[in-house]
Structures are given as C-alpha cells and as structure tokens.
Design goal:
Layout (H helix, E strand, L loop, with lengths): L1 H59 L6
C-alpha cells in the first residue's frame, strides 16, 4: 500500500509540475497575443485616421460644379 501511495504521489507531483509549466507558457503567450492585438488595433485606428484625412483633402480639391 505504501508503494502504491508513493507512486501515485509521485505521478501527481509530476503532473502538477507539468501543469504549472504549461500554465506559465500559456500566460506568456496570452500576454504576447494581447500585445499584438493592441498593436494591430492601433495600426487600424491610425489607418482609419489617414484615410479620413485623405477623404478630407480630396473633398477640398473637388472642382466646382458648372
């Protein structure tokens, strides 16, 4: 019974360590993805502003109707 207990305890300790490592890796990847999404959101917002400026500039250059 002691041997079975020790084996089960070892297996659970090993599994716990592996889950801890995986959780750390997932946290790191989640932070990276979040950072990339924030960058992408900023780029999309900047692009939208540039397009709006282009539309305004083009509108200012519009010829008068005859």
């Amino acid at each position: 019974a002691t041997l079975v207990y020790e084996q089960a305890n070892g297996i659970l300790a090993d599994a716990t360590a592996k889950v801890d490592v995986a959780a750390g890796q997932i946290s790191t990847m989640a932070a990276q993805v979040s950072g990339h999404l924030a960058s992408l959101q900023g780029l999309v917002s900047d692009s939208k502003a540039v397009l709006q400026d282009a539309v305004s500039s083009l509108y200012a250059l519009r010829p008068e109707e005859e």
